[in-house]
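Quick question, first post here. What does this chain look like in 3D?
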Amino acid sequence: MDERAMTSALWEAAKAGNTAEASRLLDAGAPVNRKNHANNGVTALIVAAEHGHKDTVELLLDRGADLEATDDDGSTALVFAASGGHKDTVELLLDRGADLELRTT
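> Answer (accepted):
Ran it through. Tokens below.
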């Protein structure tokens, strides 16, 4: 599987909350911080946070995901998790040091 296919599969695993598949893809070399410019520049971390998949968010952070990465509008994983009402995911992101003062553009 080439890097583009692995990246796409990682975004899908993040969206579905398939932590085991995300781990397998990362082990195979999928880039953890690649942005999906066809979908407003989101990263796998943002996608997992948006859908409230705490375990997948934790995996991505453990594997080096950029906690403060933003989409094309300047929103972070914390913004997406909070907007979706995903309290456990918000708490995890805050525990990991997400910046409450970071402003969206």
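The CA atoms of residues 19 and 56 lie 5 Å apart.
The domain at 3-95 is CATH 1.25.40.20 (Serine Threonine Protein Phosphatase 5, Tetratricopeptide repeat).
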